[in-house]
Amino acid sequence: MIILNLRTYINRNYITSEHLHPTDMIGYMDSVIDDINDDLQATFPTFSEWSAFCASYNEANPESVPLDPNAYTAFPDLYLRKVVAPGAALKFYANDEEGEQVASKFYLDYEKARSTMVRDYMNQVPAIFQDNTGGYVDFADNLEPVGVEITYENSRL
User: Fold this and answer.
1) Residues 6 or more apart in contact with residue 100 via CB below 8 angstroms
2) DSSP assignment of the chain, as one string?
3) Of the four, 13, 101, 142, 149, which is 20 to 30 A from 132 by CA?
4) What is the spatial distance between Cα 16 and Cα 19, in angstroms, rounded to a whole number?
5) Contact 48, 30 (CB under 8 A)
6) Which one, of 28, 108, 123, lies nearest residue 75 by Cα?
């Protein structure tokens, strides 16, 4: 989806009382991408990182179809409309002094859309955006006893 069209969509459908300037909106949209990355254990670039990502991707992959820095294509447009748009509105109204009541309206929509995205898109995250740097559990063969030894004569367990 063209990023400018997404900004217009958010302004017209979610932030109706005020017209939020596109540069101000980027911070809220980036915050939603950060939430999505946390939920999906992914590394989707934020909107402010998108043009640099496109340039480096196009340079590294000259044989593939070049990415357009004006169109955010990291995940389907459906999730841009259903998750990013209400999420950006929620984050805007949550920071606004007079927007607390409006923010509560968007909160339920945003949380429902995020959980739907996690359910439906978790196994479809492209390999380039998968965060495989997570931790691991080391199952060492440590067979030494662990516990508490009580030596007091009147103690009961």
Assistant:
1) 93, 94
2) -BHHHHHHHHHHHT--SS---HHHHHHHHHHHHHHHHHHHTB-PPPTTTHHHHHHHHHHH-TTSPPPPTTB--SS-HHHIIIIIHHHHHHHHHHHSTT-HHHHHHHHHHHHHHHHHHHHHHGGG--GGGB-------------S--S-----TT---
3) 142
4) 7
5) yes
6) 123
What average pLDDT score do residues 120-125 get?
A: 95
CB 54 within 8 A of CB 69: yes
Q: What is the pLDDT of residue 141?
A: 63
pLDDT, residue 102, reads: 78
Residues 6+ apart with CB under 8 A from 42: 36, 125, 129, 130, 131
- How far is Cα 56 from Cα 33, in angstroms, rounded to an integer? 20
pLDDT band, residue 5 (cuts 50/70/90): very high
pLDDT per residue as tens digits for the range 24-51: 899 999 999 999 999 999 999 999 999 9
b/e per residue 21-43 (b: at least 16 CB within 10 A) = eeeebbebbbbbbeebbeebebe
Length, in residues, of the chain: 157
